[in-house]
Amino acid sequence: MANLLITRLVGFAVILALFVVAVGAYTRLADAGLGCPDWPGCYGFLTVPEAAADVSLAEARYPDAPVEVTKAWWEMGHRYIAGALLLLVFAMFVIAWRGREENTPTKFMSALLVIIVCQAAFGAWTVTLKLWPQVVTAHLLGGFTTLSLLWLVLLRQGVFASVHRGLPRPGKHAAIALVAVVAQIALGGWVSSNYAALACHDFPSCDGSYSPTIDLAAGFNIFQGVGPSYLGGLMDNEARKAIHWVHRLSAIGVALIVLSLAWRLMRANRLLASAMVVVLIAQIVLGILNVVWVLPLFNATLHNVGGALLLITLVTVNFAPRLRIHRAMPNA
User: Fold this and answer.
1) Active-site residues: which are they?
2) pTM for the full model?
3) Residue 324 has what pLDDT?
């Protein structure tokens, strides 16, 4: 029965993790990452201060961070949802180890628990280090890793068997595609955390040029110090253009790699290959619209979710054929 319970819980956890990714993206894009200047509470309260007396006390405690209730609720909402996911993963960890004689996914659950605890730490550092880009990008990658592992547990439990049925053992092409997508996601996180999404104001050129003046050294200086606050970004425009332009150019290479992999997989698993192509095309369109429509929040959030879905397809191709599928039966 432990495996059956884990199967049901992990199905919910996958949905919750995707929701955490979406809410986290919206929070970051809406400049609400410092909606609460402290952690784990908000201005010293367990929830967002809204009463006049509480707001006065909050602003006295943090005179450089006036209370913006909407942004504070987005930040706290993200924390509540992420905290619920942590508790759910811990519950599955306990169930897996107590039922390990039933071949429960103990190694997966142990890895997930470690990662999600690290995620909580990165969430705290995101606030205490005032949106330091290195931490924000690492926090994003940790969220995507959590989602990917939960998805693999779901497949391991025998759910959605058609998703990976007939897949060949992964080769170099699949591995290269996975690395390329992960690198592109990290680069997208670097674009977002350095406020470079609108560094180029048109498409397909960058401010009317196909060879814009950029500062690669400054744009990709991962050793930049911790400033008083990174809200709004600290890089000059040429550095931000460098990040944005590289993200655009690398997207072309990633698209070619993923499309060629999908073509090779079409005979083995048309469903997964088609899903890969659809998500990839959607990602490209959403990325273009981010520039053309001047970064509307809903569109930009969908771009983050699309990145997570594309990653899931590549994770499936690379790791699902190696899984020992366990089908949790109701009477197991």
Assistant:
1) 75
2) 0.94
3) 81
